[in-house]
Automatic annotation (TrEMBL):
Gene: trpF
Enzyme class (EC, first level): isomerase
Record-given protein name: N-(5'-phosphoribosyl)anthranilate isomerase
Protein source organism: Sinobacterium norvegicum
Source organism superkingdom: Bacteria
Pathways involved: Amino-acid biosynthesis; L-tryptophan biosynthesis; L-tryptophan from chorismate: step 3/5
């Protein structure tokens, strides 16, 4: 099957539309003030409104208050929510949107248990663990740690770029891959050639995921 592509950390319409034109199935908007890729509700509304049909617009939150998530949803056309903090399954389920739970891959993480705990999530997004950083570390983890029977529920993130994404797909066989820093000119601004090449490499790797 084809591996789906999410380009995260989008901060401007131009980058969103280029990602979609290059083959991205989803774009990610970060609602986390401590991130260099953070967007305001106003910025996000403009980006989401500009997206063509059938593109998933994902909102990323880190231990946000429910009232803030509701405020974002009131103004931004999000198709899916992504939670990167310590949110419980009950918290994630309350917003009447499909959702993804990010798991930071510490050595002691039990992915089977996490999959059961967040069994209502559309997917688990796996990112590298770095103390004090909830995501977007630019670092990778050992892809061999992903159980084969969970692959269809996995969005693989963490240090991906056009040079290693083919091997990542061959090793982990995830449903989707998520890239941010690996295709940037600087934090929050995408490098168009890197985005295009990343998407090309993912689509060239589809035979690995069969």
């Amino acid at each position: 099957m084809l591996t789906r592509i999410k380009v995260c950390g989008i901060t401007q319409v131009e980058d969103a539309l280029h990602a979609v034109a290059s083959g991205a199935d989803a774009i990610g908007l970060v609602f986390y003030a401590d991130s260099p890729r953070n967007v305001t509700i106003e910025q996000a509304a403009v980006i989401a409104q500009a997206l063509p049909p059938f593109v998933t617009c994902v909102g990323l939150f880190v231990n946000a208050d429910a009232s803030f998530v509701d405020a974002v949803l009131a103004d931004v056309k999000l198709s899916c929510l992504q939670f990167h903090g310590d949110e419980s399954a009950v918290f994630c389920q309350q917003f009447n949107r499909p959702w993804i739970k990010a798991i930071r891959m510490r050595d002691d993480v039990d992915l089977i248990a996490a999959s059961q705990r967040y069994n209502q999530a559309q997917a688990l997004l796996l990112d590298a663990y770095k103390k004090g950083v909830p995501g977007g570390t630019g670092e990778r983890f050992d892809w061999h740690k992903i159980p084969a029977d969970l692959a269809s529920r996995i969005v693989l993130a963490g240090g991906l770029n056009s040079e290693n994404v083919g091997q990542a797909i061959a090793t982990a066989k995830p449903y989707a891959v998520d890239v941010s820093g690996g295709v940037e000119a600087r934090p929050g601004v995408k490098d168009k050639s890197k985005v295009s090449e990343f998407c090309r490499r993912v689509n060239a790797s589809f035979t690995y995921a069969e």
